[in-house]
Specification:
By secondary structure, the protein is α+β, with helices and mostly antiparallel strands. The protein is built from 13 helices and 23 strands. The strands form 7 sheets. The protein has a 7-stranded mixed beta sheet. Bound molecules: glycyl-adenosine-5'-phosphate.
Length: 463
């Protein structure tokens, strides 16, 4: 069976992710809730590893700027519910909406701009609106923000919103960050956290969900340098995804056409997407993974206007007061996770159990599996001791003494574990074990006291 494509590939991926505990449908025992997902024991590790790579690449070890200096980027973690006027200032209350149509006959709801890809629920061989029974309404705007109430009273004065993006937290905290740290323009504020959008048609697994995680950077700079910084981040963000193994024909960087530009990028003309060819991307071929936008001074100016607090910067080097311009690379963490999973999934027919996940070892949820070849002769004790030492000093690992060695290797291949260490009869004689490489199935003998170092070097763990 070669690696399938399209919907067949997606089915295989969804099935493996459920079987091995990467992703579960949320509230499954109650029939599930459309657009919500839970991350299982392997999924949460994989997601955290991707999150940590981003945080490391953006905040702890940001890229070197064009002038050779390391960039100044600080982190933030803001509340999910914030003052409702924030969403008035940002434009979300008025215009964060998708055009929606209803079918009066079957009561299904569709995004008007996706009608050419949505099957009719009653006759899936036809598109929505194309059967004689379909009766679609005119499109109307549907605001995607989830509404809630703060406090005991459910009246208009207590309305609040679950944030649909993390970005606004960086704008309304701009003054706090400038006043409490030593950052100087150009600098960035980064945040990772949940976003909520009441999508009309959540679909394609975790790609478009109603609760998801985002990784956003707001980079503040002098207006005269903003175009150069936009070009810088556009390339840096593409390079980031390449560095995680997504490089190749399934990844591309695409500039927006003028008619696609968001309102805040219309004047600057700066907006590009890093796109990935997901198995469901269909005729379009690619779908958005991350957007890089030159937002001008739109957000700081809006919050200045609505809050009455001036969000400006006095630049001592230029002796000039101005509203910084912003470059925003905004990525989906959960969408990124799906791209990483799709890229890693492979089929190797030479193996008894051919499915495997070829994750970049730095992202793998389990770094190594430790096995005794047989469950006797003191081999389990040696393997378990190695495992405990590795877990404490290098990273997540598993000890497994059940089933045949082939089945244990197959389980680890499906989990994307890059190395398996097997203790056998020879281990007792010469103090070595076999180390099996996931991608090739190739095995080498390594001294027991060298195993940690050998693997740590290859998975980016502690030595
Ligand atoms: N602050 C800018 C902003 O929010 P966006 O393009 O709407 O931009 C950023 O969202 C990223 O968040 C997208 O590139 C995508 O990866 C992810 N994203 C957006 N909506 C999503 C959804 N419903 N489910 C999963 N990920 C989503």
């Amino acid at each position: 069976m070669p690696r399938p494509t399209g919907s067949a590939l997606m089915e295989k991926i969804v099935s493996l992710c459920k079987r091995r505990g990467f992703i579960f449908q949320s509230s499954e025992i109650y029939g599930g809730l459309n657009g919500f997902w839970d991350y299982g024991p392997l999924g949460v590790e994989l997601k955290n590893n991707l999150r940590d790579r981003w945080w490391d690449a953006m905040v702890r070890n940001p890229p070197t700027g064009p002038d050779g200096h390391e960039l100044d980027i600080v982190g933030l973690d803001c509340a999910i519910v914030s003052h409702p006027r924030i969403w008035e200032a940002s434009g979300h209350v008025e215009s964060f909406a998708d055009p929606m149509v209803d079918c009066k006959k079957c009561k299904a709801r569709f995004r008007a701009d996706q009608l050419d890809e949505m099957p009719c629920p009653n006759k899936p061989s036809k598109l929505a609106g194309q059967t004689e029974q379909c009766e679609l309404t005119e499109p109307r705007a549907f605001n995607l923000m989830f509404k809630t109430y703060v406090g005991a009273l459910e009246d208009p004065s207590s309305v609040a919103w679950l944030r649909p993006e993390t970005a606004q937290g960086m704008f309304y905290n701009f003054k706090n960050v400038v006043d409490t740290t030593r950052v100087k323009v150009p600098f960035g504020i980064a945040q990772i956290g949940k976003g909520f959008r009441n999508e009309i048609t959540p679909r394609n697994y975790i790609f478009r969900s109603r609760e998801f995680e985002m990784m956003e950077l707001e980079f503040f700079c002098h207006p005269s340098e903003a175009s150069d910084w936009y070009q810088f981040w556009r390339q840096a963000r593409y390079d980031f995804w390449c560095s995680l193994g997504l490089a190749g024909e399934r990844l591309r960087l695409r500039d927006h056409a003028p008619e696609e530009l968001a309102h805040y990028a219309r004047e600057t003309g700066g907006c590009a997407d890093v796109e990935y060819a997901f198995p469901f991307s269909g005729d379009k071929g690619f779908s958005e993974l991350e957007g890089i936008a030159y937002r001008s001074n739109f957000d700081l100016s809006q919050h200045t206007k609505h809050s009455g607090v001036r969000l400006e910067y006095f630049d001592p080097q230029r002796n000039e007061r101005y509203v910084p311009h912003v470059i925003e690379p905004a990525a989906g963490l959960t969408r990124g996770l799906l791209a990483v999973i799709c890229e890693a999934y492979d089929v190797d027919e030479s193996r008894p159990s051919p499915e495997l996940m070829r994750f970049d070892p730095r992202l793998s949820p389990i770094k190594a599996g430790f096995f005794p070849l047989v469950n006797k002769d003191g081999l389990p004790e040696i393997a378990e001791k190695l495992y405990r030492h590795f877990k404490r000093s290098v990273g997540p690992a598993q000890f497994d003494e059940k089933q045949s060695i082939g089945k244990r290797y197959a389980r680890m291949d499906e989990a994307g574990t890059p190395f398996c260490i097997t203790v056998d009869g020879q281990s007792k004689e010469d103090q070595t074990a076999t180390v099996r490489h996931r991608d090739t199935g190739h095995q080498v003998r390594v001294a027991l006291d060298q195993v940690n170092g050998y693997i740590a070097e290859r998975v980016g763990g502690r030595k």
